[in-house]
Amino acid sequence: MIFDNKNFYPTPDNVIEKMLEGINLNSSMSILDPSAGKGNILNYIKSDCKYVRKLYAIEIDLELQAILTGLGYKIIDKDFLNYAPEKSFDLIIMNPPFDNADKHLLKALEIANGADSRLFMKKTKYTLRVGRLIKVGK
After folding, report:
1. Range of 103's domain?
2. Which residues contact 69 (CB under 8 A, 6 or more apart)?
3. Number of domains observed in the structure of the chain
4. Confidence (pTM)
5. Other C-beta atoms lying within 10 Å of the C-beta of residue 46
6. CATH number for 27
């Protein structure tokens, strides 16, 4: 059950807004959330820019995969740390599992290929943008 998952922290809208600060979303962008959870980040992006069509998810939890599929998101893999990309992304944005957030960040940087990578770590309340750390909240 997802609520027993100690790594499941849905990202609040105000944090997603901060994560997307300075990004001009457009219809040609290809966006990946590699730890998509129940889709909060992708939902926010879709509501902010209705024309973004290339939204991709990776999620390891089967219940969360079912939620994402029900929302119409394309799940391209179940395990981000073992994911071998067949395409590139303009933006990789995530709130990774806390117990291995470092591995998720390194993997995002590995596959970014020039993309903007944004990571939110709930417990530290910081957003890491490549080369820049910003405080979010208290």
Report:
1. 2-135
2. 75
3. 1
4. 0.80
5. 19
6. 3.40.50.150
